[in-house]
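WARN retry 2 of 3 for item q-0093 after timeout on previous attempt; input resubmitted unchanged.
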Amino acid sequence: MPIERILEAGFKDLGGGFLVRRLLPSLPRRSVGPFVFFDHFGPVTVRPSDNFDVRPHPHIGLATVTYLFEGAMLHRDSLGAVQRIEPGAINWMTAGRGVVHSERRPPDLRDREYVTHGLQLWAALPQAQEEIEPSFAHTAAAEIPRWRDDGLRVGLLIGEAFGRRSPVATFAPTLYLDVEADAGARLVLPASLGERAVYAVDRPLVADGAAIAAQAMAMLAADADASVVAPEGGRYVVIGGAPLDGPRHMFWNFVSSSRERIERAKDDWAAQRMGHVPGEHEWIPLPH
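OK item q-0093 returned
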Protein backbone atom coordinates (compact mmCIF):
# COMPACT_ATOMS: atom_id res chain seq x y z
CA MET A 1 0.00 0.00 0.00
CA PRO A 2 1.38 3.46 -0.87
CA ILE A 3 -0.30 5.01 2.17
CA GLU A 4 0.04 3.48 5.62
CA ARG A 5 -2.42 5.77 7.35
CA ILE A 6 -4.45 8.97 6.93
CA LEU A 7 -4.47 11.47 9.80
CA GLU A 8 -7.36 13.92 10.14
CA ALA A 9 -6.83 17.25 11.86
CA GLY A 10 -8.16 18.03 15.30
CA PHE A 11 -8.88 21.66 16.16
CA LYS A 12 -7.17 23.39 19.10
CA ASP A 13 -7.84 26.88 20.45
CA LEU A 14 -4.54 28.62 21.22
CA GLY A 15 -6.36 31.47 22.92
CA GLY A 16 -8.55 34.36 21.88
CA GLY A 17 -10.44 32.11 19.47
CA PHE A 18 -7.34 31.42 17.36
CA LEU A 19 -7.99 27.89 16.07
CA VAL A 20 -5.30 25.64 14.60
CA ARG A 21 -5.49 22.25 12.91
CA ARG A 22 -3.29 19.75 14.78
CA LEU A 23 -2.08 16.64 12.97
CA LEU A 24 0.79 15.54 15.22
CA PRO A 25 0.99 14.06 17.75
CA SER A 26 -1.93 11.71 17.19
CA LEU A 27 -2.97 8.42 18.71
CA PRO A 28 -2.29 6.49 15.48
CA ARG A 29 1.06 8.17 14.83
CA ARG A 30 3.22 10.22 17.18
CA SER A 31 6.08 11.19 14.86
CA VAL A 32 7.30 11.34 11.27
CA GLY A 33 11.08 11.43 11.04
CA PRO A 34 12.09 13.77 13.88
CA PHE A 35 8.81 15.73 13.76
CA VAL A 36 6.56 15.18 16.79
CA PHE A 37 4.23 18.17 16.38
CA PHE A 38 2.42 19.69 13.39
CA ASP A 39 0.02 22.66 13.56
CA HIS A 40 -1.58 24.38 10.57
CA PHE A 41 -3.04 27.82 11.29
CA GLY A 42 -5.13 29.98 8.97
CA PRO A 43 -5.67 31.38 6.52
CA VAL A 44 -7.46 33.77 8.83
CA THR A 45 -7.97 37.53 8.72
CA VAL A 46 -6.51 39.18 11.81
CA ARG A 47 -8.25 42.38 12.85
CA PRO A 48 -6.91 45.08 15.20
CA SER A 49 -9.36 43.96 17.90
CA ASP A 50 -8.10 40.33 17.83
CA ASN A 51 -5.60 39.11 20.39
CA PHE A 52 -3.85 36.13 18.84
CA ASP A 53 -0.44 36.84 20.40
CA VAL A 54 1.31 33.84 21.96
CA ARG A 55 2.66 34.98 25.33
CA PRO A 56 6.04 33.78 26.66
CA HIS A 57 6.19 30.03 27.18
CA PRO A 58 9.00 27.46 27.57
CA HIS A 59 10.37 24.48 25.61
CA ILE A 60 12.90 21.72 26.25
CA GLY A 61 14.26 18.85 24.16
CA LEU A 62 13.02 20.03 20.77
CA ALA A 63 13.43 22.56 17.98
CA THR A 64 10.53 24.75 16.91
CA VAL A 65 10.22 25.22 13.13
CA THR A 66 8.08 28.17 11.99
CA TYR A 67 7.08 28.71 8.34
CA LEU A 68 4.60 31.25 6.99
CA PHE A 69 2.62 31.28 3.74
CA GLU A 70 1.11 34.72 4.50
CA GLY A 71 1.37 37.40 7.17
CA ALA A 72 4.10 38.14 9.67
CA MET A 73 4.93 37.56 13.33
CA LEU A 74 7.56 38.81 15.75
CA HIS A 75 9.67 36.19 17.52
CA ARG A 76 11.39 37.14 20.78
CA ASP A 77 13.18 34.76 23.13
CA SER A 78 15.12 34.50 26.37
CA LEU A 79 18.39 34.39 24.38
CA GLY A 80 17.75 37.98 23.31
CA ALA A 81 16.84 37.12 19.71
CA VAL A 82 14.28 39.39 18.07
CA GLN A 83 13.22 38.31 14.57
CA ARG A 84 10.40 39.31 12.26
CA ILE A 85 9.13 36.12 10.60
CA GLU A 86 7.78 36.50 7.06
CA PRO A 87 6.62 34.11 4.30
CA GLY A 88 9.18 31.76 2.80
CA ALA A 89 11.74 31.94 5.62
CA ILE A 90 12.59 29.14 8.04
CA ASN A 91 12.97 29.96 11.72
CA TRP A 92 14.57 27.18 13.75
CA MET A 93 14.80 27.59 17.52
CA THR A 94 16.74 24.88 19.34
CA ALA A 95 15.30 24.62 22.85
CA GLY A 96 17.78 22.08 24.19
CA ARG A 97 18.04 22.38 27.97
CA GLY A 98 15.45 25.16 27.97
CA VAL A 99 14.35 28.38 26.28
CA VAL A 100 11.42 30.79 26.58
CA HIS A 101 9.87 32.66 23.65
CA SER A 102 6.86 34.66 22.50
CA GLU A 103 5.24 35.14 19.09
CA ARG A 104 3.35 38.38 18.67
CA ARG A 105 1.87 40.66 16.04
CA PRO A 106 4.55 43.01 14.69
CA PRO A 107 4.04 46.65 15.79
CA ASP A 108 3.43 47.88 12.22
CA LEU A 109 0.45 45.50 11.86
CA ARG A 110 -1.30 46.30 15.14
CA ASP A 111 -3.74 48.73 13.57
CA ARG A 112 -4.23 46.85 10.31
CA GLU A 113 -6.16 43.88 9.00
CA TYR A 114 -3.98 41.18 7.48
CA VAL A 115 -4.09 37.47 6.70
CA THR A 116 -1.98 35.01 8.67
CA HIS A 117 -1.35 31.50 7.39
CA GLY A 118 1.40 29.03 8.18
CA LEU A 119 2.76 25.97 9.90
CA GLN A 120 4.40 25.36 13.26
CA LEU A 121 6.34 22.11 13.67
CA TRP A 122 8.51 20.67 16.41
CA ALA A 123 11.45 18.38 15.76
CA ALA A 124 12.53 16.24 18.71
CA LEU A 125 16.27 16.51 19.29
CA PRO A 126 18.37 13.32 19.27
CA GLN A 127 18.92 11.99 22.78
CA ALA A 128 22.58 13.08 22.73
CA GLN A 129 21.52 16.69 22.03
CA GLU A 130 18.44 16.98 24.25
CA GLU A 131 20.31 19.13 26.78
CA ILE A 132 22.30 21.19 24.27
CA GLU A 133 22.62 24.95 24.72
CA PRO A 134 19.58 26.74 23.26
CA SER A 135 19.97 28.78 20.06
CA PHE A 136 17.97 30.55 17.36
CA ALA A 137 18.63 30.57 13.60
CA HIS A 138 16.79 32.52 10.88
CA THR A 139 17.16 31.43 7.25
CA ALA A 140 15.80 34.05 4.86
CA ALA A 141 13.43 33.08 2.06
CA ALA A 142 16.06 34.01 -0.55
CA GLU A 143 18.43 31.39 0.90
CA ILE A 144 15.98 28.48 0.51
CA PRO A 145 16.57 26.37 -2.64
CA ARG A 146 13.55 26.65 -4.95
CA TRP A 147 12.96 25.32 -8.45
CA ARG A 148 10.31 24.67 -11.11
CA ASP A 149 9.76 21.34 -12.82
CA ASP A 150 6.82 20.09 -14.91
CA GLY A 151 4.10 22.17 -13.26
CA LEU A 152 5.70 22.08 -9.80
CA ARG A 153 7.24 24.88 -7.77
CA VAL A 154 9.26 23.24 -5.00
CA GLY A 155 11.04 24.71 -2.00
CA LEU A 156 13.52 22.57 -0.07
CA LEU A 157 12.98 24.11 3.34
CA ILE A 158 15.06 21.60 5.29
CA GLY A 159 17.17 18.62 4.33
CA GLU A 160 18.74 17.15 1.23
CA ALA A 161 16.68 15.94 -1.77
CA PHE A 162 16.60 16.00 -5.57
CA GLY A 163 20.28 16.87 -5.76
CA ARG A 164 19.87 19.97 -3.61
CA ARG A 165 20.55 20.86 0.02
CA SER A 166 18.91 23.39 2.33
CA PRO A 167 21.26 25.60 4.37
CA VAL A 168 19.17 25.03 7.52
CA ALA A 169 21.30 23.12 10.05
CA THR A 170 19.70 20.17 11.84
CA PHE A 171 20.78 17.50 14.31
CA ALA A 172 19.45 14.48 12.37
CA PRO A 173 18.42 13.75 8.77
CA THR A 174 15.29 15.87 8.28
CA LEU A 175 13.02 16.52 5.29
CA TYR A 176 10.67 19.47 4.76
CA LEU A 177 9.36 20.44 1.30
CA ASP A 178 6.91 23.17 0.27
CA VAL A 179 5.22 22.28 -3.04
CA GLU A 180 2.87 24.34 -5.22
CA ALA A 181 1.42 22.23 -8.02
CA ASP A 182 -0.50 22.93 -11.20
CA ALA A 183 -3.50 20.67 -11.87
CA GLY A 184 -2.27 17.16 -12.60
CA ALA A 185 1.38 17.84 -11.75
CA ARG A 186 3.21 14.83 -10.28
CA LEU A 187 6.03 14.58 -7.72
CA VAL A 188 7.84 11.30 -7.05
CA LEU A 189 9.18 10.95 -3.51
CA PRO A 190 11.89 8.27 -3.38
CA ALA A 191 11.96 5.82 -0.48
CA SER A 192 15.58 6.91 0.10
CA LEU A 193 14.27 10.15 1.64
CA GLY A 194 13.36 8.21 4.82
CA GLU A 195 10.05 8.42 6.62
CA ARG A 196 7.65 10.63 4.65
CA ALA A 197 4.26 12.19 5.18
CA VAL A 198 2.31 14.48 2.84
CA TYR A 199 -0.02 17.20 4.13
CA ALA A 200 -2.59 18.72 1.76
CA VAL A 201 -2.62 22.40 2.72
CA ASP A 202 -5.57 23.57 0.62
CA ARG A 203 -6.80 21.01 -1.97
CA PRO A 204 -7.06 17.22 -2.22
CA LEU A 205 -4.20 15.04 -3.40
CA VAL A 206 -3.75 11.52 -4.75
CA ALA A 207 -0.82 9.32 -3.78
CA ASP A 208 -0.41 6.24 -6.00
CA GLY A 209 -4.18 6.17 -6.55
CA ALA A 210 -5.17 6.75 -2.91
CA ALA A 211 -7.14 9.92 -2.13
CA ILE A 212 -5.95 12.44 0.45
CA ALA A 213 -8.55 15.03 1.46
CA ALA A 214 -7.65 18.68 1.84
CA GLN A 215 -6.11 19.36 5.28
CA ALA A 216 -5.39 15.69 5.90
CA MET A 217 -1.98 14.06 6.30
CA ALA A 218 -0.97 10.80 4.62
CA MET A 219 1.79 8.62 6.05
CA LEU A 220 3.56 7.08 3.08
CA ALA A 221 4.62 3.45 3.17
CA ALA A 222 8.25 2.82 4.01
CA ASP A 223 10.66 1.24 1.51
CA ALA A 224 8.64 2.30 -1.55
CA ASP A 225 8.72 5.28 -3.87
CA ALA A 226 5.51 7.32 -3.83
CA SER A 227 3.92 9.41 -6.58
CA VAL A 228 1.91 12.44 -5.42
CA VAL A 229 -0.52 14.21 -7.79
CA ALA A 230 -2.62 17.33 -7.21
CA PRO A 231 -5.67 16.74 -9.47
CA GLU A 232 -6.99 20.29 -8.95
CA GLY A 233 -3.63 21.88 -8.33
CA GLY A 234 -2.82 23.23 -4.89
CA ARG A 235 -0.22 23.40 -2.18
CA TYR A 236 1.19 20.65 0.00
CA VAL A 237 4.14 19.99 2.25
CA VAL A 238 6.22 16.87 2.71
CA ILE A 239 7.84 16.16 6.09
CA GLY A 240 10.00 13.31 7.34
CA GLY A 241 13.55 12.09 7.64
CA ALA A 242 15.31 9.52 9.78
CA PRO A 243 13.13 7.95 12.49
CA LEU A 244 13.61 9.02 16.10
CA ASP A 245 16.32 7.29 18.11
CA GLY A 246 13.82 6.09 20.70
CA PRO A 247 10.43 7.00 22.18
CA ARG A 248 9.67 10.49 23.46
CA HIS A 249 7.48 11.72 26.28
CA MET A 250 5.50 14.92 25.74
CA PHE A 251 3.79 17.25 28.17
CA TRP A 252 2.58 20.65 27.05
CA ASN A 253 5.63 22.29 25.40
CA PHE A 254 8.16 19.81 26.76
CA VAL A 255 9.64 16.85 24.86
CA SER A 256 12.14 14.41 26.36
CA SER A 257 13.23 10.80 26.39
CA SER A 258 13.00 11.03 30.20
CA ARG A 259 9.80 11.43 32.21
CA GLU A 260 11.85 12.72 35.13
CA ARG A 261 13.31 15.48 32.97
CA ILE A 262 9.82 16.66 32.05
CA GLU A 263 8.83 16.73 35.72
CA ARG A 264 11.87 18.89 36.46
CA ALA A 265 10.95 21.24 33.62
CA LYS A 266 7.42 21.59 35.02
CA ASP A 267 8.84 22.56 38.42
CA ASP A 268 11.31 24.98 36.82
CA TRP A 269 8.61 26.77 34.81
CA ALA A 270 6.21 26.98 37.75
CA ALA A 271 9.02 28.62 39.74
CA GLN A 272 10.02 30.84 36.77
CA ARG A 273 13.56 29.43 36.67
CA MET A 274 13.76 28.95 32.87
CA GLY A 275 14.63 32.49 31.86
CA HIS A 276 12.70 35.51 30.68
CA VAL A 277 12.11 37.25 27.38
CA PRO A 278 13.52 40.79 27.63
CA GLY A 279 10.75 43.37 27.70
CA GLU A 280 8.00 40.82 28.35
CA HIS A 281 5.96 40.88 31.56
CA GLU A 282 3.42 38.14 30.79
CA TRP A 283 3.80 34.38 30.76
CA ILE A 284 1.59 31.34 30.17
CA PRO A 285 1.07 29.34 33.38
CA LEU A 286 1.82 25.62 33.55
CA PRO A 287 -1.35 23.69 32.67
CA HIS A 288 -2.84 21.29 35.18
